[in-house]
């Protein structure tokens, strides 16, 4: 219903054109100095905060089966009880949170240069404050920024975005309203090499459209990378000015 | 709460400083740190507030739902509390680590707001015995820099005070039962009256003196604390002893006097802030920044 204007007028229910991203604001160092690194990433009404603690000594629970030459990366995702329209009545982790936590951990393991601090542990905690579509990709972007804020050496930025195809029109950055009506493809890439590290599709997309959706997603990721890079640059310019 | 490791010398310095009324950051024993309250942090809730006092950062969101009143109180609504300690505040809160702290805070808040002297629950009733509002208040602890309970209590008062309760414009009858009708205009709403709601003043004892608004370091130098609920008129609504310390009757009496004096000031500043926020309700900020002119400071 809401997407009926899509083909004729090329306009989406919230007034955006198909290739337009929502308004993005990101900030680094929000939990300074308690956390080693932290960042917030807001895209439209989706708000995510990430905090990185470490590298520090391995926690006693993991000490038994810990290889002293390796570095442990621990990741936990949690969503606030008020984040979605349906209120979550318990704070305990459910299956979905655990799955996202382990997926995030594999993304972090991919970008953090391995075993650079052997025998230590890095904790990455991501908190979803409000979910209006594209929450998983926002979590990846926030976690990347938090790692940069913590000064942990990473291979490349991991950036992610959602994309879809509906009424023969490719769209990027799906919000919650659109998610209910079409397939949602979450795509995450390594920003400088454009290698895909995250690919998740819910619902169905017709076979010959898949490549177009992927291309759209990669272009969207490039736009997000520019914004993340700008945020990092601004932060370090400010730091430089305060040192001079 | 998240533990801080201090050496013996640091503890000694801190305790002696408190005894001379000069704390590590220069405050006196009765000074609060500066912070601010912001509304509309979470746009899909009926009321939401982000309150920050130095490094303690908490989001309080309230969602209003329609429900049936409890049989023991047929003409009252309900307010439920849920506290969630996010692991972003400390790695200790990972998994179930923050549950014990969350339980304690939840219990204190529930008992504070269950009293009719704090908040008028009758205003949440729409049709006695049939329909009432159930307000679910969710508290998310983002960062813990000491004095968590006080900040949460202030945040809850601000959130309930700026929460938009939809207005029931009337009832229609459906098969003989009354069903409330809500106005379609989203700008027609009511605010809850929080003018009598209390604020909690936590007083940990550092050495031989009580301090207000302790930092994490000061809390780690104290064995226990007293959490005292103070209403805007100076009356004491609750006293909770937390931790492992023992007190003499004289100390408790002295601390309650201290809390009453401080609590009245805190309530006044918070009420003024809530009124100002209600006036500028539709304005929301995107990037978290303490606004210079609106910064709240209590001394």
Automatic annotation (TrEMBL), chain A:
It is found in: Cytoplasm; Nucleus, Nucleolus. Its main location: cytoplasm. Signal peptide: none annotated. SUPFAM superfamilies: Ribonuclease PH domain 2-like, Ribosomal protein S5 domain 2-like. PANTHER family: EXOSOME COMPLEX COMPONENT, EXOSOME COMPLEX COMPONENT RRP41. One of its GO terms (biological process) is U4 snRNA 3'-end processing. Keywords: Cytoplasm, Exosome. Non-catalytic component of the RNA exosome complex which has 3'->5' exoribonuclease activity and participates in a multitude of cellular RNA processing and degradation events. It holds the Pfam family RNase_PH. One of its GO terms (cellular component) is nucleolus. This is Putative exosome complex component RRP41. InterPro entries: ExoRNase_PH_dom1, ExoRNase_PH_dom2_sf, PNPase/RNase_PH_dom_sf, Ribosomal_Su5_D2-typ_SF, RNase_PH. The keyword Cytoplasm applies. Gene3D superfamilies: GHMP Kinase, N-terminal domain. GO terms for molecular function: RNA binding.
UniProtKB/TrEMBL annotation, chain B:
This is Ribosomal RNA-processing protein 42. One of its GO terms (molecular function) is mRNA 3'-UTR AU-rich region binding. It holds the Pfam family RNase_PH_C. It is found in: Cytoplasm; Nucleus, Nucleolus. The keyword Flavoprotein does not apply. Signal peptide: none annotated. SUPFAM superfamilies: Ribonuclease PH domain 2-like, Ribosomal protein S5 domain 2-like.
């Amino acid at each position: 219903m809401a997407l009926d204007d899509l083909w004729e007028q090329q306009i989406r229910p919230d007034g955006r054109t198909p290739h337009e991203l929502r308004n993005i604001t990101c900030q680094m160092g929000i939990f300074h100095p308690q956390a080693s690194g932290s960042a917030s990433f807001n895209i439209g009404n989706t708000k995510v905060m990430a905090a990185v603690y470490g590298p520090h000594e391995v926690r006693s629970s993991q000490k038994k089966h810990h290889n002293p030459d390796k570095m442990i990366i621990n990741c936990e995702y949690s969503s606030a009880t008020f984040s979605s329209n349906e209120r979550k009545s318990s704070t305990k982790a459910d299956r979905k949170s655990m799955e996202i936590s382990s997926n995030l951990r594999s993304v972090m393991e991919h970008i953090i240069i391995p075993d650079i601090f052997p025998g230590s542990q890095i904790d990455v905690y991501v908190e979803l404050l409000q979910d209006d579509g594209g929450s998983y990709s926002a979590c990846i972007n926030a976690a990347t920024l938090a790692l940069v804020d913590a000064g942990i050496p990473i291979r490349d930025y991991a950036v992610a975005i959602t994309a879809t195809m509906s009424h023969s029109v490719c769209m990027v950055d799906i919000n919650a309203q659109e998610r209910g009506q079409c397939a949602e493809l979450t795509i995450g890439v390594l920003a400088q090499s454009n290698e895909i590290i995250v690919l998740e599709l819910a619902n169905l997309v017709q076979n010959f459209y898949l490549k177009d959706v992927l291309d759209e997603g990669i272009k969207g990721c490039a736009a997000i990378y520019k914004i993340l890079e700008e945020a990092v640059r601004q932060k370090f310019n400010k730091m430089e000015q305060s040192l001079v | 709460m998240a533990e801080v490791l201090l050496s013996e010398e640091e503890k000694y310095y801190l305790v002696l400083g408190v005894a001379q009324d000069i704390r590590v950051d220069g405050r006196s024993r009765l000074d609060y740190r500066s912070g601010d309250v912001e509304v509309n942090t979470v746009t899909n809730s009926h009321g939401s507030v982000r309150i920050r006092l130095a490094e303690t950062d908490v989001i309080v969101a309230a969602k209003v739902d329609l429900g049936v009143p409890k049989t023991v109180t047929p003409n009252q609504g309900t307010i439920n509390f849920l506290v969630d300690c996010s692991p972003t505040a400390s790695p200790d809160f990972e998994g179930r680590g923050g549950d014990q702290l969350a339980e304690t805070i939840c219990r204190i808040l529930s008992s504070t707001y269950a009293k009719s002297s704090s908040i008028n629950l009758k205003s949440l009733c729409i049709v006695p015995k049939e329909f009432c509002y159930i307000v679910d208040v969710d508290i998310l602890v983002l960062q813990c820099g000491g004095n968590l309970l006080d900040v949460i209590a202030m945040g809850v008062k601000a959130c309930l005070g700026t929460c938009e309760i939809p207005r029931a414009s009337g009832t229609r009858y459906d098969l003989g039962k009354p069903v409330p009708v809500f106005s379609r205009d989203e700008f027609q709403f009511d605010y809850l009256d929080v003018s009598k709601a209390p604020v909690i003043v936590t007083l940990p004892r550092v050495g031989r003196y009580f301090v207000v608004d302790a930092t994490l370091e000061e809390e780690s130098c104290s064995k226990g604390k007293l959490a005292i609920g103070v209403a805007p008129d100076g009356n004491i609504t609750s006293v909770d002893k937390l931790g492992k310390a023992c007190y003499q009757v004289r100390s408790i009496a002295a601390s309650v006097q201290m809390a009453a004096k401080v609590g009245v000031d805190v309530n006044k500043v918070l009420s003024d802030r809530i009124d100002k926020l209600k006036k500028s309700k539709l304005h929301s900020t995107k990037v978290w920044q303490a606004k210079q002119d609106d910064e709240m400071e209590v001394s």
